[in-house]
Amino acid sequence: MENYVITIARNYGSDGCAIAERLAGQLNIRLLDKELLSLVSQETGISEEILEQADEKVKVSLWDAGRERRFDPEYDRVDPNNPLSERNLFRYQAAVLRRLAERESLVVVGRAADYVLQRHMRLFAVNIQAPFDDCVAGIMKRKFVDAKTAVKDVRTINREREAFYKAYTGRDWNDPLNYDLCINSAKFSQEDCVALIRKGAGLKFKCEL
């Protein structure tokens, strides 16, 4: 079978990462989440701590992010005069991601991967969301934090991810038209979410996953 990529955009607290992990395990293909930072660090020599600071974040508001020049995965190149800029860190990450996608099948979590890999011949883009209250409850349970902290974290991290996506793609992170499949994870078990993704990707790729 030809290589394929399934990308998972997710609201914080929606169980998107856990679903992606289950999916990759069932398909027996590589999962790229935080590991991507390690791979970029190995290739560039930039510390994972520096990469982590810019991971799915930009130092602009959502309004300003919408006015940024969008990233072009084909033509955007590293600026040697400012190697540690946020945009350059994203360029490094995108280059590693594109190279890996040429070699093997992947499940990729976040990092605007649906946009970076948009020209990949076998790409299936998924957006996993859940109602705000469900996300808060999930974070309280997993992170052992109180409701006030969970509410703040869900709002902050989702704003960061939305601004990051807008800055580099020019797109609305929450627009369902940017994805092949959108799932409300509060309506399904993690296993059922995986089954929906496998079925949808199989239909698009015209094969059974």
TrEMBL record:
This is Cytidylate kinase. InterPro entries: P-loop_NTPase. Keywords: Kinase, Transferase. The lineage of its organism: unclassified sequences, metagenomes, ecological metagenomes. One of its GO terms (molecular function) is kinase activity. It is an enzyme of class 2 (transferase). Its EC number is 2.7.4.25.
